[in-house]
Amino acid sequence: MSPTRTRVSRLALRPTIGIDIGGTKVAAGVVDVDGNIIDRTRRETPSKSKSAREVEDTIADIVAELGARHHVLAVGIGAAGFVDGTQSSVLFAPHLAWRNEPLRDAVQRRVRLPVVVDNDANAALWAECRFGAAQGESHVVCVNLGTGIGGGVVLDGVLHRGRFGVAGEFGHMVIVPGGHRCECGNRGCWEQYASGNVLVREARELVVNDSPVAYRIAEACQGDPRRITGPMVSALAAQGDPAALELLEDIGQWLGVGLANLAAAFDPGLFVIGGGVSDVGDLLLEPARTSFRRTLTGRGFRPEATVVRAALGNEAGLIGAADLARRERSRRRDRAKLVTTRLLLPRRREELTHSASVRRNTRRATTTGTGTAIEPASTRRGNGTWRRPTTS
Known about the structure:
With 392 residues, the protein is an alpha/beta fold. The chain has two domains: 3-124 and 316-324, Nucleotidyltransferase, domain 5 (2-Layer Sandwich), CATH 3.30.420.40; 135-311, Nucleotidyltransferase, domain 5, CATH 3.30.420.40. It contains eleven helices and 17 strands. The strands form five sheets. The protein has a five-stranded mixed beta sheet, with helices on both faces. A hairpin with a 6-residue loop joins strand 5 (82-83) and strand 6 (90-92). The longest helix is centred in the last third of the chain and has 29 residues, at 316-344. The chain is globular and about 60 Å long.
């Protein structure tokens, strides 16, 4: 093996840092090529009132801590917000202070490593497709239930980010016009009915109204509704508390309604449900599956997608971000090689371009299966005239 190939191979084997920035916490880890987390750390997310600079400080502090212990290749950031098509800026984050924030360049200048930024749900979906519950499935929709709802779509094995990079913001689909006010500014968004915030909001309302069915929730928070958290309600549900179970069932029903809408739009083979709320498993997913089947358009006359819990749990976001950073680093290296090759072979490139142009001018579209394929409609004779292809 040549020294160059050995050096490239060793470079590709170096771990990467993945950072998952949510509404309440920043989880980070060092991830190897197989998706294993070999080191990790965590911080609280700076509040929405804090400046974007403070979030950058948190990220830089994490990279410095993990980078001191590991020789890393790159950094991937999964951000809870709209990430632009160049995967460099966060256009808008409902739960953070980012507005048109050039996050990639700002962090890259500080950490002196290649940085990739993507939506946190895209990162989680990527991890599930590479290492988790969606391995081997070509059409997948991921729904992450955390502070809000994030999502991602894989169609024909390709992660789709949309024309402007902001696809998959399922949490802000309006499903109840005029409903609860959302932090995004609209009313009736899906995440106002099926997220971790909803679980806390509804539990607090029961306690504030001194509902007798919520006595165990009131005991757990010592009578102070402000102490109620999502994990607290989930733990009570796991212990069989009727009020907590009812709250999760309500969320599951709204989750199923949203999944049915997504099935009508994307027709996936698999829904992967992730995020902290999914930790309760079937206490949430069974009501969701029932509601999904009841709401699905064409029910009884069409195949149904399978609804499963994410295999990688809350770590999917950081694992996916790290792997996307590795992939982008490799892509840039390969692109540099390709540019070199094109510079060395400009004449051959012109010939290929001309040939491709000729082929495009001699094709027609024919429908096959669920898509449109292209096949030759005619071929050129040696004297320059055209003839139709013969059929056997």
